[in-house]
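Methods — Computational structure assignment.
A single polypeptide chain was analysed. Its primary sequence is given first, followed by the predicted tertiary structure written as structure tokens.
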Amino acid sequence: MSAVLLKNCNLIDETGVITAGEDLLIREGVIAARGTGLSLAEGEAGEALDCSGLFVSPGFTILHAHSPMHILRGVAEDVNVNDWFNREIWPYESKIQEEDIYWGAKLCCAEMLDHGVTAFADHYFHGEQIARAAKESGIRADIAGTVFAFDGNPEPEMKAVEALMDQYRGDPMVKLRFGPHSPYICSPEVLRTLVEAAREKGGGVHLHVSETADQVAESRKKHGKTPVEVAAEAGCFTVPCIIAHGLWMEEGDLPLLAEDTYIAHCPKTYLKLGAGKGTIWDFWRRVNLCIGTDGAASSNSVDPLEQARLFALVGKFDDKAEDYPLREVWQVLMRGHEALGFGSGRLAAGAAADLLFWDLNMVHTAPLYNPLAAILYSGDSRNIRHVMVAGEFRKRDGALVFDTASI
């Protein structure tokens, strides 16, 4: 892995602070130094790249995705959330094969890298195929092997996840956690079993919680508790936890969440499936809100920038135009790095070199007055000239580096 020296960068850090004219020196996949006047060591193999006119930021993350569902993009349109799953998606998904999962994930990885995603959290079955696709693509992946335990016995699905955990333990690019589907499919006993397994294996959990108002009502009827309360009593928030959606969480749910509980917000799905605004916009500053995309079968794309834009615009439309300021929206985009724990998301010595190189001198982002405004409200993948993961270019000069011809 050769060194890379980035000269004369305009830097956008994880808080949205912008500084001009700095250098970054990258060695062994991490940022070795940040400053001015940096240079490669005498005789050091490497490349110096003049970044004058570019803005360099940490990469994007997606905290909730179903990458194999790329093969189902466009098959379920103009239907409500119940028909989307039961009538449209499940008949296909029940017949899905391992090879389908691999190719769906591979296509998704390509699209994510094009959109500047350097790490993602996935929730699906046959995680070994997702790990295979991610490794080949050079993107970081946190994979939650889905556990349904329809018969009340999570053991077979759980053992498959544990085997993958052992296989990828210590891998800097792939992590595994348990993926109980939800409190409305997995019983409290199953949830507790998976939490204990996560604690023993040194992992976490990733599950769907309070996606719809109906789910909350049904949980109250069945358990006398909200889905968040059911998950909390099962211990889900005593280990690192990703909550997919949490759209209809309630005020009383918030104290139950831990410091390492993160919420994956996917507004395009909610808008498209008519799920309602829910409550999360009321609580967004009081939780660890991050950006997710859900699967392409519901969101049609895996573009975190699009999701962040919708998050801010829906909030402004329904609340106040002065709310959802640029830097805070940017911080929501960046927060997924904390949840995933790959050491990325900062422009500092020792941080993983997972970086985006922004060209904002384009017709759809010119003239440039405020770089964050240009990115958040005008930018798209065309502005991302290069994408670097672990010090290696995965997109360069506007084109993906790995071979996509066979996808």
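Note: DSSP finds 14 helices and 17 strands in the chain.
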